[in-house]
């Protein structure tokens, strides 16, 4: 395991974590050919802007993301494959930053952005946001101001739902986080402010505040409210983005009804090979197929968002529970 450690970050008072991540990325591009190749491909990807009545979405044609987008995440498939995030199964060239003793920051080998990291727990355990949110808040603060961090729920974007992990991307990478507070209405103004997204075709709540304990308690109340309303056992389907600036955390929560839209399962040219995770929900829709990249329009995006988000009625009930 020691051979996989590039550096150690024990806490915020040490060397700045974004700088350490930049050093890791440069080392890995030099000494891990697979990552160097992935970044060469990333430099050649195509993007296209869609302006959709009140918000913007970027389409990204990125064939390297096809494995992640099409990953089988059912119980049998997960049980019958080795976990690619566990130390024993990672490439020998892959090194990471030991983060606060319990996570390892790794360069994502299929990056969606220049500076895309996967932050994996040192122990093999399932994705679970309620028990790990405190570490997500720590990570957001330690990675600021250069990065934001996010979590994909086990049934809405995580290609490794059996191994707890987060991801970090450049702070300006996700359009909806940059758009805040535009098209967000404040519905509670106390020590923890609560906002609701409006006119963006997605069911989104934002918690903002400077008191970590109060944020954790309010998030727990939100999860409990969602569990009461949404008919699903276990963790509610959520994608979570967390940022930190000027002493304030901002937690953006996408409330989901399902993993993938119906069009994902169609055949031939009718298939839309888009599997929405946090990146897609926050405004960068990755399309591994060029046909989709060329054809998708705002109507398609609006339909995908509506299909995988909780209904307006459920959203109102969750807010009332809060």
Which structural class best describes the helix and strand composition?
A: alpha+beta
Judging by the overall fold, what is the CATH architecture? 2-Layer Sandwich
CATH topology: HIT family, subunit A
Strands, total number: 14
H/E topology pattern: EHHEEHHEEEHEEHEEEHEEHEHHH
Major beta sheet, specifics? Answer: 11 strands, mixed
Helix content: 25-40%
Measure the end-to-end span.
Answer: 44 Å
Tell me, briefly, the overall form: globular
Account of the 3D structure:
By secondary structure, the chain is of the alpha+beta class. The protein has one domain (2-321): ATP adenylyltransferase (HIT family, subunit A, 2-Layer Sandwich), CATH 3.30.428. 32% of the residues lie in helices and 25% in strands. The chain contains 11 helices and 14 strands. The protein has helices at residues 17-31, 33-42, 66-69, 75-79, 129-143, 175-179, 212-229, 278-281, 290-295, 298-308, 312-321, and strands at residues 5-9, 46-52, 55-61, 96-99, 103-107, 117-121, 147-152, 165-170, 184-188, 193-197, 204-209, 238-245, 248-255, 284-287. The strands form 2 sheets. It has an 11-stranded mixed sheet with strand order 1-4-5-6-8-7-12-13-11-10-9, with helices on one face. It has a 3-stranded mixed sheet with strand order 2-3-14. Strand 12 and strand 13 (248-255) form a beta hairpin. Helix 5 (129-143) runs antiparallel to helix 7 (212-229). 40% of the residues are buried.
